[in-house]
Amino acid sequence: MSSSVGPTATPPAGPRAGGTRAPRNKGWVSGMVLFAGVVMLVNGILEVFHGIMAIAEDDVFVSTPRYVFRFDLTGWGWIHLVIGVLVALVGFFVIQGAAWARIAGIFLASLSLIGSFLALPYYPLWALVIIALDVFVIWALCVYRED
């Protein structure tokens, strides 16, 4: 009779409970999470600058009088400033490997994406770039699984 306790014990063969094996990360997936953290950090800092531009100098942005989601540009500036600070901060913790930061990163990248979509008429090319980066960040943070 063999013992299954101690240093000679072998792990049970086959899938874990529930019938499926836990997915393993490949090197590129972990690298993509690191890259997503760096993108979040840089994107957050740029959004802070974007917010400061909107707060300080409203004539930098395009004016669209018939836009459905029309807000005061100073208000948009404060929104971008706050979201930018939060995205940069969480991006720093994603780079550090904090598990909670990946969940918060998905949420904040989603908020950033929505904010950029709503600000699309004010700074169209920049908003499209930020939307694309936010989609990548959301994807990279969603596909990562702890080993």
TrEMBL record:
Organism domain of life: Bacteria
A Pfam family this chain is assigned to: DUF7144
Organism whose genome encodes this protein: Kitasatospora cineracea
The keyword Membrane belongs to this UniProt entry's keyword annotation: yes
Keywords: Membrane, Transmembrane, Transmembrane helix
Record domain DUF7144: where: 32-145
Segments for region (Disordered): 1-22
Keyword NAD: no
Transmembrane segments: 33-56, 76-95, 100-119, 125-144
Lineage: Bacteria, Bacillati, Actinomycetota, Actinomycetes, Kitasatosporales
Name by which UniProt lists this protein: DUF7144 domain-containing protein
